[in-house]
Amino acid sequence: MFTMDQARSALQRVYGYDGFRDGQRKIIEHLAEGKDTVGIMPTGGGKSICYQIPAMLLPGVTLVISPLISLMKDQVDALHSLGVKAGFINSTLEMGEAGRLMWQAQEGRIKLLYVAPERLETEWFRERAKSIPISMVAVDEAHCVSQWGHDFRPSYRTIAPFIQELVQSGRERPIVAAFTATATPEVTEDLIHSLELLEPELVVTGFKRDNLAFTVLRGEERKAFTLDYVRQRASESGIIYASTRKEVEDIYDMLRHAGIAAGRYHAGLEDEERAKMQEAFLYDDVRVIAATNAFGMGIDKSNVRYVLHYNMPKHMEAYVQEAGRAGRDSEPSECVLLFHPQDILTQKFFIEQSEAAPERKAHEYKKLQVMIDYCYTTGCLQNYMVRYFGEEGEQPCGVCGNCKDERESIDITIEAQKIFSCIYRMRERFGVSMVASVLKGSRNKKVMQYGFEKLSTHGEMRHLAEKEISDLIYVLIAEGYLQLSEGQYPVVRLLPLAADVLKGKRTVEQRVAKSLKPKAGTVIDETIFEQLRLIRRELASQAGVPPYIVFNDSTLRELAELQPTTEAGMLRIKGVGEAKLKQFGMPFLEFFQQREEEAGRYDME
Ligand SMILES: [Zn+2]
């Protein structure tokens, strides 16, 4: 097989990194011994290195099975920029081109071949594959093989038979490495079974992402919050996820009207516009993009500084995957979830609408409840996730919204009492907007029809707008004083906590987000950083790749800090390997050399 010394030296030479992270090292050690391995590591954990380095060192070809067509191209581009020979076969490729690649693989002229799982279903591919010396099969997004995963893809079920067929044709059985970012213990067991792994080693590298600060905000006015939040981060890349196309459109319009260059992405747009938007985001032409969960499956952009969820997603797997797109370069980043009780109804509606079997629906409801509990937990948010995926939560993370709550509390006991007593007088039979109308003192038809203008609480909150009253009611729902019934016309009811408030035994506080201000930048010179970004932008467009493929933000920051003027100095920077130095290094070196010269001239004068 290969040795760990070889692996380390490849890491240094090709990627420009000094050492493996803990999980990477363990996975590569197992693969070096020729063992099947399951790697469960969060997005941004440096998964691709775990199979790319073994692929370079093993004889023959590594077949990488990946469901994401756009990601394949990115990965292959990235490998080429590192000087590694790789190719991909998917539906965007012409038959002749695919044949040529298969030929190169057969000759051993490429080390990694990326294919979509559907490819294994074609006779043509299965036959040609038998003449390729495949020494490893790396299965990406391996949870897709399990029915209990959140993204079951039947074509994944052809992987095990495909490998069997290879063996039956007289080939040696390749090592199988399976990777996923999100698998509960139940799903892990299922995937080991379905992929027919042989006594696999399991490496779980921790869902803890030290550079991500998670926050849940309940009862915020979402639009105002979002606009403010994005404005404060004008120079940073961010994704705003919303549940519906309509909300994506609303956010997009709001940002554009405020003069912010924003993108949008959802399944209702033409393919062409979607591709354009994705590209604009990738190339930093727009810094913020509003999107449904259709966005991001193929996005490997490393410098996303924040992921803002405008709605609660349907389960933790989706949340971890989407939020995990922040901070892949290990720089501090934020993941904020704006929770609104309406989200629960929306998600229940989606489950009801689906044509899944009752057993499956019950499973979805269970997952939804876990997500809701996350929004209400007062403990460390990172630990909550980590435990869900079957790991012991260790120390509180110290940076999430619950570990570090800097919000201001304001006393809203009197408002709460007015609202509760109004709901009580309306006999707990009406929805949020009707309660708000009565408190506002409206005399609309419906209010008069029920004689509510005669209630003592009618008009008790006339100093507020109806919208503000509704928002307050939602805060009280989110905090567990009130409950919203299910169904198409949800009704607000009092919960036991509300009775305590009415009796004066309990006060109500609302926490107002004062924090979430952008953190002060590090000590590096931002002007230099911006100039380096421009150089990178230029190199990227010449090479036809996204900027982060040239160098990612943390490499750029280190460059700005150390300002190397020699090739040796440049190679000491994390993320600068030999191939990248050769391809992209010169313009940076020249920039620093010129600065040094200018500084020297000043000294002499
Ligand atoms: Zn925490």
TrEMBL record:
Pfam families assigned? DEAD (PF00270), Helicase_C (PF00271), HRDC (PF00570), RecQ_Zn_bind (PF16124), RQC (PF09382)
Q: Tell me where in this chain the HRDC domain is found.
A: 522-602
Reactions the enzyme catalyzes:
Couples ATP hydrolysis with the unwinding of duplex DNA by translocating in the 3'-5' direction
| This protein's GO CC annotations | bacterial nucleoid; cytoplasm; replisome
**Statement: the UniProt record of this protein carries the keyword DNA-binding:** yes
Kindly list the cofactors needed. Answer: Mg(2+); Zn(2+)
For this protein, the record's PROSITE patterns field holds: HELICASE_ATP_BIND_1 (PS51192), HELICASE_CTER (PS51194), HRDC (PS50967)
Q: What class of enzyme is it?
A: isomerase
- List, alphabetically, the Gene3D superfamilies matched: HRDC domain, P-loop containing nucleotide triphosphate hydrolases, Winged helix-like DNA-binding domain superfamily/Winged helix DNA-binding domain
Q: Which CDD domains match?
A: DEXHc_RecQ
Which part of the chain is the Helicase C-terminal domain? Answer: 229-369
Give all residue intervals belonging to the Helicase ATP-binding domain.
28-201
GO MF assignments? 3'-5' DNA helicase activity; ATP binding; DNA binding; four-way junction helicase activity; hydrolase activity; metal ion binding
- The reply to whether DNA damage figures as a keyword in the UniProt entry is yes
Q: What is its EC number?
A: 5.6.2.4
The GO annotation for biological process reads: DNA recombination; DNA repair; DNA replication; SOS response
Which keywords accompany this UniProt record?
Answer: ATP-binding, DNA damage, DNA recombination, DNA repair, DNA-binding, Helicase, Hydrolase, Isomerase, Metal-binding, Nucleotide-binding, Zinc
The record ties this protein, via NCBIfam families, to: recQ (TIGR01389), recQ_fam (TIGR00614)
The UniProt similarity line reads: Belongs to the helicase family. RecQ subfamily.
Q: What protein does this entry describe? A: DNA helicase RecQ
| Source organism of the structure | Paenibacillus alvei TS-15
The organism that produces this protein has a lineage beginning with: Bacteria, Bacillati, Bacillota, Bacilli, Bacillales
